[in-house]
Amino acid sequence: MTTATSDQEFILDTYLVELDKHIHSSLSRPKKEKHNYDILDTEKSIQHRSCILAKKQQQMKIGDIWQYALGNYKGFEDLKKGHKTGLDILSVPLKIAMELKNRTNTDNSSSRKSNLDKLAMFKKKNPEYTCIYGLINEDTEEKHGKVEAYDSNITELN
Fold it and tell me: Which runs of E-coded beta strand occur in the chain?
């Protein structure tokens, strides 16, 4: 869904209706129950992995909802999976490129480096853009909703 293109008016009510549909659709997607077999599995370890898998799938759905919510708001585009930049959201009118992470525990050092490299590559090709690495659910309440903007060298601004 795109609520507005550059030549269309953004209609907030339409955006909210479509967002509500997307939330319900995302949260009602079936859960996958597939597990990898391990020779050391016990009934308890299988149950534990099932709980972990369910939580991870729920976090992924919520991350998808945030990307949709921000990427379909006025002036923004949800780049979805497989975009050539590898990024999540772009705003041509505002000159903003974003990479979103729903949780810090899905943001280990190697994936963070990879995501910052994507932003750096985009910034190098598009120096007029502000590149944002957005953490929706930081690991502590004080850091909630943290957004980091990066300069042309993609270094953290404090």
Answer: 77-78, 89-91, 96-103, 130-137, 147-150
* CA geometry: angle 79, 82, 65, nearest 5 deg: 50
pTM above the 0.85 mark? no
Q: How big is the CA angle at 113 (ends 142 and 55), to the nearest 5 degrees?
A: 55
Q: Is the pLDDT of residue 55 over 50?
A: yes
Check residues 46 and 127 and name the one with the higher pLDDT. 127
CA distance 128 to 142: 31
pLDDT at 2: 46
Angle in degrees, CA 119, 79, 71, rounded to 5: 95
Cβ contact 70:89 at 8 Å: yes
Dmax (CA) for the chain in angstroms is 59
74 CB-near residues (< 8 Å, 6+ apart): 3, 4, 10, 15
Cα distance between residue 44 and residue 24, in whole Å: 32
